[in-house]
Amino acid sequence: MITVGEVVRWILYRTRSSYYRLVRRLMRGDRLLWGSERKFRALLEAAPDAMVIVNDHGHIALVNAQAESLFGFRRQELIGKSVSELIPKRFRDQHRHHQRQYLRDAVARPMGGGLELYGLRKDGCEFPIEISLSPIETDEGTMVSSAIRDITSRKRALTELATAEELFRGAFDGSPIGMALTDAAGEIVRVNGALCELTGRSTQQLAGMRFDALTLPSEVAYDRTAVAALLAEAQAQYKVETRIVHATGAAIWVTLQATTINDDDDAARRLLVQVQDITHRRRYEENLHYLATHDPLTGLHNRASFVEQLDMHADVVRRYGSDGALLLLDLDHFKYVNDTLGHQAGDQLIARVATVLASRLRDSDTLARLGGDEFAALLPRATARTAKRVADDLLEALRAERIPVPGTGGRTMTASIGVALFEGAQDLSGEDVLVNADLAMYDAKEAGRNQLALHVRGGEHAQARMQGRITWAERIRVAIDENRFALVAQPIFDLATGDVTQFEVLLRMRDDDGGLIAPGAFLSTAERLGMIGRIDAMTVTRAIRAMAEHDATAAVGPRVEINLSGASMGDPEMLRTIERELQETGLDPSRVIFEITETAAIANIGKAREFSDQLAKLGCCFALDDFGAGFGSFYYLKHVRFDILKIDGEFVRECCSTSTDRLVIQAVVDIARGLGKETIAEHVGDAPTVQLLRELGVTHGQGFYLAMPQPLESFLAGLRPAAESRVA
């Protein structure tokens, strides 16, 4: 049985033991080596990290303010506490093991190399730390100084970096665009699968290769210069359309974009190169350019392309005095073919003639179809003698073909050729030489056809013809200044109901006697001389005002379709004219339809898209005229905003007897119907055609059989209610 005395003695013993332990701790703090306590404490407090000094039993003897802040304890709470209490419970056994190992060989070093260390705050929160240990020898034995640093931000940054690297790696490897990392010397460090597939080479084959070794040799020098500027920070990125070489040797068009990737010291060390295959796009653009510069029937250069080349050669002649000649060829009696056998036979004959002419010219010569049955050839190195020899050869080749001409009593197809020379001393433009060749060709016609004539400078007949050409240009200027243009209207019918829903405004020019001249006689000259913009603006103004005046005195009538030239399509002034007239007249924009021919749109698809977008913003409608004539039609359906497709009359005239024409019309109708657009068949010539167009689903028809053009004012004045204005 325990007595009261034994209890008292036990209490006194415990109290005395606690007292002596406290004294020893205080005394150990006073007997630290290496100088005075004041200096040591000053160094301790100045340390950037949390400092915790622990005795050989693992109890905390001294801390600094950073330790208080880091762990959330007051200094008095930390002194004498076991250091393991600052470590999460699951790590304490591991910590004691490392502590014992360290005391056996105490040297300055990090603690727990390769391990993740965590601290424990007073509030129970854990946080990642790193610890650097240093031994301190004292009278009481070896103590350990622990420099503790919170690495939460660093670990978060590392985690984010690892995530970013993983995302980059995933985006890099999984990208459908070819990608490569190169060093500053341009050697490939890493590639993705898309680039391997694009180049036909494996990762192993590409690794270590200079990237510009993939580039077509003719373009390597330019690429190296651009990359050098990129590395020198002279530009932010390098982007170019170029060609690379596939493993098979084939050239591939690509968009190549290179961007620098900087190291931590901000020095450029890597290039990120992105490569996208644009072969199909380039091929399509080349096809569009071909269609814009070549005649769709013969594949020869068209007038616009040929005139451009004439001007270029004229510039060379003026600068260097080179030779050169122009041949202008016109088929004799060609109109009888069209009148007797129809346009399809005429087209076949034109294609046959083109083949014959092309077979007799050199690759350095340029052959073009200017329109109708008129051809031209540019001979850039020809003298008068060689030009006449080539012209004779072309005439003989046509004679040898013996192409019959119906309605001419057994004649075969021949041609008349005018020859004109480029002469540097005369300072001639391409248009001047074309006029001279035209004059000579006229001389060949007058001399009996089937022959050539050489243009002679200063000839009496040449002067008369030149004056005639100048007079014709002046007639157009006078017609513009004196408003000698007339507008006629041709109704367009809804084939389902028979109602007149809209009409097309057609242009005519009045001659001195008041007669009407068809646009084919003057529009091409007006376009060449830059007068077409004024004519288009006049047409737009008069048509809109006439519509507004009619609406002010009668019930709202049908919509109006106005033709515009390709030049006006890209003219900002035309858009301003349209917007101004709509605002001033108050005419509903949805009742105005602007037409651009497909061949005009193909010449500049970008302008056509922008123009149609601007018309839509104004509230007007947009129609593609002569749809199907350019062989690039379906491209526009995707890239140009439109409301109406006007099917080219070439497919309408003989659709009742030609299955190909019917299939084309049906295809256009199906596409338009799927897009929710209207279709108009042009050149409707008889009742069976009307019935067939209805069966094929064409929504509207236009042609002389349905209604002849009539003066615009008369048409508007005679408008009747829809029920009275129908086609059978």
Separation, N- and C-terminal Cα atoms: 134 Å
Look at the structure and give the CATH class of the largest domain.
Alpha Beta
Unreliable sequence segments: 3-35, 721-725
User: Quick one: CATH superfamily of the largest domain?
Assistant: EAL domain
Question: How would you characterize the overall build of this protein?
Answer:
The protein is an alpha+beta fold and 728 residues long. The protein folds into five domains: 1-29; 31-150, PAS domain (Beta-Lactamase); 155-277, 2-Layer Sandwich (Beta-Lactamase); 287-457, Alpha-Beta Plaits; 481-724, Alpha-Beta Barrel (TIM Barrel), CATH 3.20.20. Strands 17-18-20-21-22-23-24-25 form an eight-stranded mixed β-barrel, surrounded by four helices. Helix 11 packs across helix 15 (430-446) and helix 15 packs across helix 16 (460-481). The radius of gyration is 45 Å and the shape is elongated. The N and C termini lie far apart (134 Å). The relative contact order is 0.05.
Itemize the secondary structure elements and their pairings.
Blueprint: H1 4-30, H2 37-46, E1 50-54, E2 60-63, H3 65-71, H4 75-78, H5 89-104, E3 109-110, E4 117-120, E5 126-138, E6 141-150, H6 152-174, E7 178-183, E8 188-191, H7 193-199, H8 203-206, H9 220-231, E9 237-245, E10 251-262, E11 268-277, H10 279-293, H11 303-320, E12 325-331, H12 334-341, H13 343-359, E13 366-371, E14 374-379, H14 384-401, E15 415-421, H15 430-446, E16 452-454, H16 460-481, E17 485-494, E18 500-510, E19 516-517, H17 523-528, H18 532-553, E20 559-563, H19 566-569, H20 572-585, E21 592-597, H21 598-603, H22 605-618, E22 621-627, H23 633-639, E23 644-647, H24 649-652, H25 659-675, E24 678-681, H26 687-696, E25 700-701, E26 710-711, H27 712-717
